[in-house]
Amino acid sequence: ITRSKILTRLRSFLDQNGFLEVETPILQPVYGGASAKPFTTHHNTLDMDMYLRISDELYLKRLIVGGLEKVYEVSRDFRNEGVSRFHNPEFTQVEFYWAYVDYDVLMEFTEKLLVDIIKYIKGSLKIEFQDVLLDFTPPFERITFRDIILKQTGIDIDKITNEKEFKNILKVKNIKLDLTGVVGLGALFDELYKQLIRPKITGPTFVIDYPAEMIALAKRKADDPSKIASFQLLACGTEILKAYNELNDPSDQAQRWLEEQSLQAKGLETAMQFDHDYIRALEYGMPPTSGMGIGIDRLTMLMTNSPSIQDVLFFPQMKPEKKT
Predict the structure, then answer these.
(1) Which of 36, 80, 228, 253 has the highest CB neighbour count under 10 A?
(2) Comparing C-alpha atoms, which of 223, 224, 241, 220 is closest to residue 232?
(3) Strands 205-208 and 141-144
(4) What pLDDT does residue 324 have?
């Protein structure tokens, strides 16, 4: 019931702020919009492999190219990856894209959106999740990705330029990480963050300005091209939403995807694919745009003090019962 109320309120908030709800393809010829492993299927008539979407990002941004300035979708997405208390292979997120604004505007908008939903659901901006009291009174704390890693590990990622240097500094600091199957400097930064940093963030906290290697679809900061204009909202060690200024330079986007493909050749299973049709859309021209994805399952966990994602899904993915 709470989940339904969250979606209704979120839709209402976006509608009242001029966003148009749209629908984009779930079956896609090229999967994109995130770093994840897809579910593959086959279209018999067209005799071609297709993929259940891992995100609707690239299609929503095509609509921005087409002239719509504020769009959103309540989307079912699918990732052929592990199951955990925060992960289900099929999940719900709301993605929205807003032309002619940057991520600073989007952070303020995010605070207003969450305040609206939390007050509606809980009646107060102070909520309890797993014995931790969270205060969603804005403004939320902000810290850069570089600063929070430096603060908690003593590692300055701005001084690391390649994978060898990263692994050497781990040895010097005697930091042990599980890096099985991890390829590329951006992915290594991400694992350091996910394994050692993120679990310690109580929040609500905006972690901002990620290294450019980490998200191939995000726009570089004008004053520091080594970083992307991005933010992630965390609470109790888990990601609630992610947002960034959208990369709208077709040549930069093509180069970033070529870099992803080279990492795939080295064994990165979650590398983004090169989408030629999307590059062509960018060549027509996409205005400056910011976008966001909000995980509805995790937001519902937070609002209902539920320890597992299975508690907020009617039909979570489960192993079949063994026949005796």
Answers:
(1) 228
(2) 241
(3) parallel
(4) 64
